[in-house]
Write a structure and sequence with these properties.
By secondary structure, the protein is α+β, with helices and mostly antiparallel strands. The protein has eight helices and 17 strands. The chain is globular, with a radius of gyration of 19 Å.
Length: about 300
């Protein structure tokens, strides 16, 4: 069966939407995107924090001076429609806005924006390692900062920074990279925020460390505080990773992914720690609709 996508206000077949090779976004990385997950629940498919993701999509558009031509509510409805049209019980959803017109020149046009919403089946980001723990490398590449590019815009061009860091890590036999800020403090992963556990407290870099303020990150902070786990946002020295009791990544794709080794140094006892395990379990309950306290984060596909 052909996959259905939402494109410029209509449901279309994925293969029927064509883009020219010289489109500005392909040549210069001037597009914006979001990553959203939908989960199977006992009450049907539910999209996690849909409004928050679409509102961030609009924030990215504002930073890049993009007029999307649709409202927040229209794109929320479109996202629900795409999931329903494809009949997915769970999936990954990619809203994407790009410049359609082609030509040579850095300055983009302002009247050629096209918006698409694509949904695809998607499991664990790193397979079994997403549950049992991954090995990470502190990258030689620094995280971009707002003196160079907007770190709060999910712009396609920004992610070349992530590509370089991930490629370096994987070439070295690791599963993922960890980037530091230009000031030398811990920042984030290529597509994930990072959190440490020390003496029962959750510690995570704040906005001053050039991180993307991830929606999953905010969710984990709220969930931790509801469980009585104290949370501190601050500058984090990279060597704190090595002496942490537990480390994990969090993000839409990664969900909660334990990190059990950094630069060939075991974290804690080299296994998934108790607080990480608890948060993984609780987060799964939230996204599956089993924790009614956080049901406000779910948009059900009816």
């Amino acid at each position: 069966m052909s996959r259905k996508i939402w494109y410029q206000g209509e449901i279309k077949k994925y293969e029927d939407v064509k883009v020219t090779l010289l489109t500005h976004t392909l040549q210069y990385g001037s597009g914006i995107f979001e990553g959203i997950r939908a989960y199977k629940t006992d009450d049907g498919t539910a999209i996690f924090r849909l409004k928050d993701h679409i509102e961030r999509f609009f924030n990215s558009a504002k930073i890049l001076r993009i007029n999307l031509g649709f409202t927040v509510d229209e794109l929320i409805d479109a996202t629900v429609k795409v999931v329903k049209e494809n009949g997915f019980e769970s999936c990954y959803i990619r809203p994407f806005a790009f410049h359609e017109s082609d030509g040579i020149g850095v300055k983009p046009k302002t009247d050629d924006i096209r918006v698409a919403i694509i949904a695809v089946p998607f499991g664990k980001y790193l397979g079994d390692k997403s549950v049992n723990g991954i090995r990470a490398k502190i990258s030689s590449w620094k995280r971009i900062n707002s003196d160079v590019l907007s770190v709060q815009a999910k712009a396609t061009g920004n992610y070349l920074n992530s590509v370089l860091a991930s490629s370096e890590a994987m070439d070295g036999g690791y599963d993922e990279a960890i980037l530091t800020s230009h000031s030398g403090y811990l920042a984030e992963g290529p597509g994930e925020n990072i959190m440490l556990v020390k003496n029962g407290r959750l510690i995570t870099p704040g906005i001053e460390s050039d991180i993307l303020l991830g929606i999953t990150r905010y969710s984990i902070i709220d969930l931790s505080e509801s469980l009585g786990i104290p949370v501190t946002e601050r500058h984090v020295h990279k060597d704190e990773l090595f002496t942490a009791d537990e480390v994990f990544f969090c993000g839409t794709a990664a969900e909660i992914t334990p990190v059990v080794n950094v630069d060939n140094i075991e974290i804690g006892n080299g296994r998934v720690g108790p607080i990480t395990s608890k948060l993984m379990h609780e987060y799964a309950d939230v996204t599956a609709g089993r924790n009614k306290k956080f049901n406000k984060w779910l948009t059900y596909v009816k």
